[in-house]
Amino acid sequence: MNQPALELIDTIYTGNGWKVRLLCGYLGIALQRRSLSIVEGDLDTEAFRRINPWGQVPVLRTREGPWLAESAAILWYLAQGTAFLPADALAQAQVLQWLSFEQTQHMANLAQPRLWVTLRGTMAVDAPAVLAWREQGNKALAHMEAHLQRHRYFVGDRPSIADVALFPYTCMAQQGGYELRCYPSVRRWLERMQALAGYVPLL
Ligand SMILES: N[C@@H](CCC(=O)N[C@@H](CS)C(=O)NCC(=O)O)C(=O)O
Q1: Which residue's CA is the nearest one to ligand 1's atom 16?
Q2: 16 CB less than 6 Å from ligand 1?
Q3: Is 52 exposed, middle or buried (0-12, 13-18, 19+ CB in 10 A)?
Q4: What is the side-by-side strand order in the sheet with 59-61?
Q5: 71: exposed, middle or buried (C-beta count within 10 Å: 0-12, 13-18, 19+)?
Q6: Could you identify which of 10, 33, 175, 195 might form a hypothetical disulfide with 114, taking C-beta atoms 3.0 to 4.6 angstroms apart as the criterion?
Q7: Other C-beta atoms within 10 Å of 92: how many?
Q8: Ligand 1: which atom is nearest the Cα of residue 14?
Q9: Which letter does DSSP use for residue 181 in this model?
């Protein structure tokens, strides 16, 4: 029986969707892409809510058929059996540790300033809410900097989905007013990720 093609539903500018395209680029996985528009209300339609009742992108139609939401779960699914998800229990738990860090301490604090200051352009770079996000986001970046001063990648000595998950919003942080020159090891890690074979840019 033919398996359905992997299909990614995203938006053009989503960093969470970029994580998925980035991993597929590194792994040489073919992906069909359908980009929707948040401002046009595409995520509020009945058809999309049947795919993801939570109403967010990215979502991936799996090889088995069901749709999968949440970027961390999608990365985990796609990386199974590849070098981007180490096989041993401790290394896998360390990957999960960084995926959780990305979702709880990193992503919103870096993505929200970018969204409101640059993509929507409705908040000033020094608006109180933006300053509050940046204060927390700088703590996350300092934590990454401390790790990357001692390691080339987040888990082990090669890139994993931990690096892929942390890459997009770190790479685009300056659009939310962050100063990456304060984080030289993070900048060198971003360059290493961009130099890997199969790297795909956001646009
Ligand atoms: N935890 C989710 C977050 C996904 C997310 O925030 N998606 C945004 C685009 S980057 C979205 O769909 N926003 C529309 C909305 O929340 O209504 C993930 O990692 O995939």
Answers
A1: 56
A2: yes
A3: middle
A4: 32-36, 7-11, 59-61, 67-69
A5: buried
A6: 175
A7: 15
A8: 10
A9: G
The CATH code belonging to domain 89-195 is 1.20.1050.10
Structure tokens at 87: 């096989």
* 150-163 pLDDT per residue, tens: 999 999 999 999 99
Give strand pairing partners of 165: none
Gyration radius of the chain over CA positions: 17
Q: Where are the domains of the chain?
A: 7-79, 89-195
Cβ-in-10-Å burial (0-12, 13-18, 19+) of 43 comes to buried
Q: Do the first three CATH levels of 7-79 and 89-195 match, i.e. the same topology? A: no
How far, in Å, CA of 73 to CA of 52, rounded? Answer: 14
How does pLDDT run across 129-149, given as a tens digit for each residue? 999 999 999 999 999 999 999
Paired with 33 in beta bridges are: 8
Answer yes or no: is the C-beta of 110 below 6 A from any ligand 1 atom. Answer: no
Is any atom of ligand 1 closer than 6 Å to the C-beta of 55?
A: yes
Query: Cα(115)–Cα(122) distance, rounded to whole angstroms?
Result: 9
- Using one digit for the tens of pLDDT, what is the confidence trace for 90-106? 999 999 999 999 999 99
Domain 7-79 in this protein, CATH class: alpha beta
